[in-house]
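Deliverable D5.2: sample structural annotation.
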Amino acid sequence: MKWFHHITKVLPFALALIGVNWYSHAQIPGQSYFPNGNNYIEYIYGNHPVILSIPHDGDLKPDEIPDRSCPNCVYGNDTDTQEMGRAMAQAYFNKTGHYPFVVINRLARIKFDANRNKNEDDNDNNPIIQEAFDNYHAYIADAKNKIIQDFGRGLFIDIHGHAHDIERVELGYTLTGHELRQADEVLNTTTFMNRNSIKTLVYEKVGEMTHVQLIRGGLSLGNLFHDKGFPTVPSAADPFPKEGEPYFNGGYNVWIHGSRLNSGNIDGIQIEINQDVRFDAESSALFVDAVATSLMEYLSLHYGFGVIDFDGDGVLSNLDCDDFNANINPNTNEIPYNGIDDDCNPATPDDDLDGDGFNNMDDCDDENADINPGSDEIPYNGIDDDCDPATPDDDLDGDGFNNVDDCDDNNSNVNPNAEEVPYNGLDDDCDPATPDDDLDGDGFNNVDDCDDENADVNPNSDEIPYNGIDDDCNPATPDDDLDGDGFNNVDDCDDNNADISPNADEIPYNGIDDDCDPATSDDDLDGDGFNNVEDCDDNNSNINPNAEEIPYNGIDDDCDPTTLDDDLDADGFNLVDDCNDNDTSINPNAIEIPYNGIDDDCNPATPDNDLDGDGFNNMDDCDDENADINPGSDEIPYNGIDDDCNPATPDDDLDGDGFNNVDDCDDENPDINPSVSEIPYNGIDDDCNPTTPDDDLDGDGFNNVEDCDDNNANINPNADEIPYNGIDDDCNPVTPDDDLDGDGFNNMDDCDDENPYINPSVAEIPYNGIDDDCDPATLDDDLDGDGFDNAQDCDDNNANVNPDAEEIPYNGLDDDCDPATLDDDFDGDGFNIAEDCNDNNANVNPGLNEIPYNGIDDDCNPATPDDDLDGDGFNNMDDCDDNNASVHPNAEEIPYNGIDDDCNPATPDDDLDGDGFNNVEDCDDNIANVNPNAEEVPYNGLDDDCDPATLDDDLDGDGFNNVDDCDDENADVNPNSDEIPYNGIDDDCNPATPDDDLDGDGFNNVDDCDDENPDINPSVAEIPYNGIDDDCNPATPDDDLDGDGFNNVEDCDDNNANINPNAEEIFDNDVDENCDGLIEVTPTKPETSVSAGNAKDYLYIYPNPANDFIYIEKWDKYQFLVEIYDVNKRLVLRKFNTNQLNIQSLANGIYFLIYYDEMGERIVKKLIVDRK
């Protein structure tokens, strides 16, 4: 608790004040209100769950309020706290867009202390102070109610300043420094939780945060301040004030408006700001910002109000389930299996994506709810349904093969790895190709098959001779003497022919080994290894296909007629005719190949290297096939032939300029050839290119003799002369260039140089559309000079007549040259002014029909009637029917014919009574007061409104006429209605039925506070203590007869206002003033002398040992707090500024009394309670 500050500085603060009656206006957040018309208490309306209270920095000292004068009063302001509090509110708005509620005491503390009980000061009886106190706390209460209404909960902050030596911020939770110094486990008990001014929050956080964590943990308000550079106690860094250190733990405002006493929804914290922060502008500004930010954080962290986004992910803390991790917020996609609620939606599965009740650790497919450890394994679906690899899915017999490969998945002896067990009727190896009783797969089982392991042996097989096997499983089929000649296949070389055997004689040349003895020749009589078919002489072993042919012996040694004996090269010529019988290309039939040095045709007369016979061989003759070409011939120019076989002799470049006669246009002149530049005008084709001009350099077809500019192809005798370009385009000086028409004027002076009749010397001819004299000033077609030529001007001799002139009526001229603009028929109706009686109105002319009653002579004929069509002497102004001569003002009215005969509506035709309704509508046309517009006059026996449904004598239609109905205009009032009490109406039309005095005691419900009990009314005497307001006067006490605020249950003398539980006990008078059942007497105080030396320690507690009361006396007069603890360190009593303590509730025993004064002094005394 805070009592005193040694601060007297007052900082003026400019305010924008609005003096309005706030109770009668809607409050505007951020607006200041001074509800009672003065500026003493300011209420800044808010719209967020924070209240800032600033009780001790007012600067107003009105003379009408006396200064405080009381023992131990503190008069100094908490300097700068008002300015800082306002700045905190503004900073909070700047950061959140919301206003906190702010209550400010603007009275100086010497006049009023808003952080004390109402009756603590000597000037508290002053009505202005009473009102200021009531207003200050009423505004806080109003803010609390508004916060609870809009938000359900909130935070009250009481802002102060301290002058302690330790420069730190002090936060007060109404826990003393001694209590804060308790161990965490002690401070976390309900005893201390109940003493906290944020008690409601503490209990809400149970299970989430401990009491200690809330007041000095990492997320406590003190720690939020400390983290922003402002040392604070309590906080994680400074958990409690040490023994002997001064500390303000929270005053009256936090006690009253926090949740300690009332357990309400508004928690309270006192902020004590140190001087270094308050008195330094920079530190003050930083702390203001820190408080605003910290309050935002505190509300977000602990109250769920999203006013801040700690992790900067764009989601406020009240919506963010982890506002310290930007990757976690409702906008994030849930990341499976990370154990984090990424999207702040517990319904979004993190590790049980398929929602089957098993997380990803246990669920082998967390995206399929049918697959999990609780599922039954479904065989053969290829899925581990129960997430147990040990449960077979497709290998039910556990033989290592699934149902795809295992043909019997219920028998572990049957699988692809098993060996087929013959003849057991099972497909043991799951291979239908592996036979069970037809092991060789030949289609015969072991009963019929004599060898069931050999598919080639079965009853369907052919017996294969000589293999020693009963192939057809028929022992009767012979295997090794098929021809039955007595020799088996080992000895018989043809066991299918009985004529062939080792016993048969060999028959030559029959191609058969008749005696089965290869040594006996059958077809190779000469024994050279070749039979008679292959051997061309089977009697000569030197002649056979393997023998080498011996040339020229006349024998076919190798039995190959194609192997020549005397034509070794096989060219068809034997060695007699063939000059080389080893080369097929040389023979008499071959063609001699020149120059190869070989006698190819075996004819030495055929030349080999001088084919043309000119005496030069091919080495010297450059064309050995032409006798005219050889080194002895003369070169013939330009024949394209090297006649003398000497390339140096020119054939086609006689002038030696490097170009032959094909390219050189003059092969006798080396200066003329394709590489030479053409020399103009020399008459020679120097470059042998006819396209290169010699005398027509511009290529326009004319040489320099004819062409006057042979460098410009556009200038030549064939070109058209281009006028006025200063060039002789056609090379003809006679062709004019700038006087085309030859009139003596060039184009500069001649406005038409192609017409010799147009030039400055010609006279202008009017209206020919030509500027004949080349002078625009000379008029050609606007003789009158009015700006319009003769084509536009209908009279070019009259400047007043032209298209711009205005038509002048009736002058006989077409002034505007527009025939459509009439001169004498203005209205254009076809009639001129002589015929037309109104030439300004096209609807008036002799050709129109007269329109009656328009007051116009439409047809320009005065004889045509306009306003008396029926000729009855009355025009249409007087005649109400100008088509009927019987109807006019002089006619008599005929009733009920539906015609206004006399043209006088006042004369009734069908409304004889003149009430505005005819006889059809009017039920009585003789009485003007009877008609459909009349109001029904009750009870006159007439149908005044001509409506039988309108009642005459039962106006409210309730079934009762005016005789019986006391209010015939109210259907709820009639003799059949129930009387409704207290409505002031005789509902049942019976004055005897009471309406407002139900109990009949003579007092109606306005005066009678219980109109159902005749014993209760203003005339009855109040009966004390019956709990009833007998006399209907709340001011008459029922159970507090002396009016001291205590009823007879609490008040031990209800007839004496000075005796009640709140009264101060007067010692030694034999009266129990405070109704505690005790008559107090003054105990004997020990005699102790006090000097300056021991004044500080002077503290008397007496009597000690004590009975029911103790008394405290201290040398100084500071305000103080007393706490009494039992031997178990439990707080059993706490009192502020009370010298007399009632200890009747304490049992006998030893206690410890701790005295704290406002200067931070602490004194401990032992107290003994002994009621002997």
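Annotation notes: The two ends are 37 Å apart (CA to CA). DSSP finds twelve helices and 15 strands in the chain.
The annotation will be released with the project's public dataset once the embargo ends.
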